[in-house]
Structures are given as C-alpha cells and as structure tokens.
Design brief:
With 390 residues, this protein is α+β, with helices and mostly antiparallel strands. It has 4 domains: 1-38; 44-61 and 296-389, conserved putative lor/sdh protein from methanococcus maripaludis s2 fold (Beta Barrel); 66-71 and 217-293, Efflux pump adaptor protein, beta barrel domain (Elongation Factor Tu (Ef-tu), domain 3); 109-182, Helix Hairpins (Orthogonal Bundle). The chain has 4 helices and 22 strands. Strands 3, 5, 8, 10, 11, 12, 13, 14, 18 and 19 form a 10-stranded antiparallel beta sheet that branches. Strands 7-6-4-9 form a 4-stranded antiparallel beta sheet, with no helix packed on it. Strands 15, 16, 17 and 22 form a 4-stranded mixed beta sheet that branches. Strand 15 (306-307) and strand 16 form a beta hairpin. The longest helix is centred in the first third of the chain and has 37 residues, at 109-145. It is elongated.
Length: 390
C-alpha cells in the first residue's frame, strides 16, 4: 500500500506534540511532589572564636571627624604702595627675615622730586604767612593810634588768615609727598619666612601689585569648616588629634576660636584649632583627625553588631540551654557612640544596656541568625552566659 508523504509529515508532527505535552505534565507532577516534601530546617551552625565578642566595659570617646588646612597665624601679602621700577629685591623663597627688615625698594627719584617740590611750596606759603602777619600787626597799631580806618585792619586780618590756611595746606601736601617717598621702601611687618616672590628686580610694578608673601611658621592653626549641626557641640578648649598629610605621627590641637556666623553660600561654620607642635609643619598643608567631645566608661559592642531590623535594636548573643549553646536575641538600649580610647583602629563602638558583662556577642559579619539556632564552635570561646540571665 502506498502512503503519501503528506500523511507521514502530519503523523510526525502529532507524535512530537504528544511527547511535548507528556514531558510538561511529568515536570509539573515532579514540581508538585517537591513542593509537598518539607525542607529540613537548619538546626545548627558552626562558628569560629573570631566570630564572637565578649561584652566588657570600654572607655568610649565620642568624636567628630574633621579636616582642614593649616594656616599661619601671621600671614601677609607684601604689595607695592606706589608705582615704579623695583630697584632692589634681595630676598627669595625660604629666606628668613626679621621684623622691620627692608625687603624691596622702588625707584624713589620721582617721589623725591615731588616731596622737594611740596616742601618748597610749604616754605613759600610760610613766608607769605609771615608777611601777612607783619602787615596785620602794623595795621592794628595804626588803628589803635587812629591813623587808618578799621576796614584796613579787617582786610589785613583776612589776608593773614588766608595765608595761614595756605601754609597748612602746603604742609599737608608735603606730608603726602613724604609718605609716598617712604612707601617706596617695603619693610617686613613681622619676623617670618618668604613664601613667594612674585616680582623681579628691574620690573616695573603698579600700585597694589603683589611683590612678596611672608608667613610666620612659629604659630600655625587649623581652619576647619563644619556643618551647622556639627558645630553646635564644639566648645573652646576641646582637644583634637590630627594627622598632617597622612603622616604616621599624631599632633594634638585645641579649639581656640569659633566663628560667630556661617559662611555665605556653603553655610559652614569655621572653627580654628591651635597647634601644640608646629615644628616641621608648613602653611597650606592638609590635616584630618577627630575632635573629642565626651568620654564614658560603659559596656560596649561594635556598632556593626547591633541589629536594627526590628522595632527596637537588639544584639545576637550566645546562651547555654542544657548542654547546648544557642543563639538568643537581646533587646538593648543604646548609649554613647564613638571610638575605644585603648584601640588604635577606626572601629566605631556603642554603649549598650540590657545585657550583662561577660556575655558572648556575635559580630556583625555573622549576619542575622534565627533565635534558638544551636551553635557549634571550631574552638570554644569563653563560656557563654547561662540562660537564666535572660
């Protein structure tokens, strides 16, 4: 019997569809059987000694992280007070100068001529004043004798008063010219070190052009910008421990001044800390550290060990139930947060109330464990607290 190819193709497609449906039904039955089979609950976990803290009193220091820039208490930008050519500029960066030392000179020729001119004008005005005074004295005597009218005396008196005013104005002009001549010499306002030389000898400088920068490294302070909320607890005299440019040694500083107003724009409050040890430090270096607010001796755990996935914070501790060690959750009241005064690490600790000293507390990296879960140690830690201490 001859079978057409079309019927063969149809039969193959039908058989494939039936096989696909059968496999799908089989897979669904297996999933239902697996879902109906209860998964055995984990009843025990193995931990290491390093996973447990033993609760003990610690001296907690509440601190505030801060960072800022070192600045010299005495810092000056030496600018030209008059325009002219720099005739002398002998100091350079790093040179130590004394208070009152001559740092630079501007060509004084023009200012000497102006002062000489003003001085001569003052002398001429004085001569005119003396002539007017003699005329007034003469007219006064003549009026007393009745030889001239009083009007002539009044005119001579007015002339004399005008001559006096002209003389005083000439003296003031001479003083201004003398000051301009004196300003041609730049002096060190205090003893310090030259930080920058912004001009060269022979260069012409304008008024207020920067010539030098001078700093006094004997007195340095740290300028720290703080947010308004952080600045509330800062008080004058509080101690900070700083590191300058990631150097290993720690420098002690104290809060010396607090700005009474916030900065426009950033809204930050500037706090200034005086440095106890300024040797080797430089103006403009970056420093960071912590400011000590409060110290308290109390039972404390690492902050990471406190869990907050419930309405109230709690810690996971170990308790003995018969001959088994199991996990228990203990509600705690939180206290002071800060660093351990005896621990050089940056780990944050927090005081807790509600559990007894000596209780083994699970570290934060262990994660959340079910209450009542039995614990087995690879190396047994300190004997856990009795379950009666709940």
């Amino acid at each position: 019997m001859h079978i057409k190819p079309r019927w063969i193709v149809i039969a193959v497609v039908v058989l494939a569809s039936v096989a696909s449906v059968w496999r799908a039904l089989s897979a669904r039955d297996q999933q239902q059987i697996a879902a109906a089979t209860p998964t055995p609950a984990v009843t025990q976990i193995e931990l290491a000694r390093q996973d447990v803290w033993t609760l003990a009193p610690r001296e907690i220091t509440h601190t505030l992280d801060l960072s800022g820039t070192l600045k010299a208490l005495n810092y000056a930008v030496i600018k030209a007070r008059v325009a002219g050519e720099l005739k002398e500029l002998s100091v350079r960066e790093g040179d130590v100068v004394k208070a009152g030392q001559v740092l630079a000179r501007i060509d004084p020729t023009e200012y000497q001529r102006r002062w000489q001119q003003a001085k001569e004008q003052a002398d001429a005005a004085r001569a005119q004043m003396e002539i007017a005074q003699r005329q007034w004295d003469t007219n006064k005597a003549l009026v007393d004798q009745g030889f001239i009218a009083k009007t002539a005396l009044d005119n001579s008196q007015a002339s004399y008063q005008g001559a006096v005013a002209t003389h005083q104005a000439a003296i003031a002009g001479a003083d201004v010219a003398r000051k301009a001549l004196d300003d041609a010499v730049l002096y060190a306002p205090f003893a310090g070190v030259v930080a920058l030389r912004a001009a060269q000898a022979g260069e012409r400088v304008n008024v207020d052009a920067k010539v030098l920068e001078l700093v006094d490294l004997s007195q340095l302070e740290l300028e720290v910008p703080l947010s308004p909320s952080d600045s509330v607890d800062v008080r004058i005299g509080q101690v900070a421990h700083l590191q300058v440019e990631d150097r290993p040694e720690t420098i002690t500083a104290k809060v010396k001044r607090i700005s009474p107003s916030a900065q426009v724009g950033s809204r930050s409050v500037l706090v200034y800390l005086s440095m106890d040890q300024a040797n080797g430090l430089r103006h403009g270096l970056f420093a960071k550290g912590s400011l000590n607010f409060q110290r308290s001796n109390q039972l404390a755990v690492p902050l990471s060990a406190v869990r907050t996935d419930r309405a109230r914070p709690y810690v996971q501790v170990l308790e003995t139930a018969g001959d088994q060690v199991q996990v228990a959750h203990k509600l705690v009241s939180l206290g002071l947060r800060g660093n351990d005064a005896s621990d050089s690490s940056s780990q944050t600790w927090i005081g807790v109330e509600g559990i007894a000293a000596g209780t083994p507390v699970l570290k934060g990296h262990v994660g959340a464990l079910r209450e009542g879960l039995q614990v087995k140690f690879t190396a047994m830690p300190t004997s856990p607290a009795s379950s009666s201490s709940r």
